[in-house]
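Q: For a teaching handout, I want to show students what a protein-ligand complex looks like in token form. Below are the inputs, and the small molecule is copper (II) ion. Please produce the holo structure.
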Amino acid sequence: MCARTTNLERQMADRQTEHLFDLIDVNPTFTHHLLMRGGQIGKVLKLPPWLVAILTQQPYARKDQLNLTDHEKERFLCAYSILNANGTLGNLVAIHAQMHQQHGTIRFLPWHRVFLLQLEMALRAIHPDVAIPYWDWTNPQEQSIPAWLQNVTPTVNTPNGPISVVRAPGSPADLATTAANVPSILQNTTFNDFTFQLEGVHDFVHVWVGGSMSSIPTAPADPIFWMHHANIDRLWWLWHVSAQGQGKNPNLSGLAAQMDPWNIAEPQTRDIGALGYTYQ
Ligand SMILES: [Cu+2]
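A: Here is the structure, written as tokens, with copper (II) ion included.
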């Protein structure tokens, strides 16, 4: 497990297919075998366009959960349950339970960007067409638990014991009230103000979902955690490419700029295109 993590760390700045190669020691998948054949296979076989896009290393899209087809939902949930069964998910939940100065600091956004990529690389090693969907709770149509997740409450085995996902969501009106802060948050002109306010809204959404999501050591067991954080990551990207946010990054240096336990430095987290994904 340690060897795999080290490989992942080393490759993090590289493109998506190269991340996938690194998982092969521990969880060999047919995706790896396909990607190892790379461009060669694309020349001799006719393949679906989405697979050609992966083989030619084009950025993949994280989509609004509202727009997923039934097939896309099924593929995401299936890959998620495989990562639960093989321990990958439980290990990530345990990392989130540790102290990495990832909450209440200016590391919040870059740290969680790296954290999401860890799960997403593992998901895509199972199903290469899957990305983490985002739950856009700023959209009035999404101000409740998405219907397709209501019965998805897995028990996740972690090194610290099993976590059975439970929820006790608040009212759509409460979620709407909090989400209404987002337009003014996007008007901030300093990174520190922006991240401080966005993290506050993020905290409230955790509390709103309730149950496992309300507690740091258990939250990532719930698939909605990853979709909530993809939305936070998306809002950060929206701000980052806006006139207000352009060129503004967290003022981190030395050890504080290292997104431990991964060997990724904050500057490597700034461009989602370089990390291999986009928001759609
Ligand atoms: Cu967190």
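A: Two things your students might notice: The chain is about 50% helix and 5% strand. The first helix runs from residue 2 to 11.
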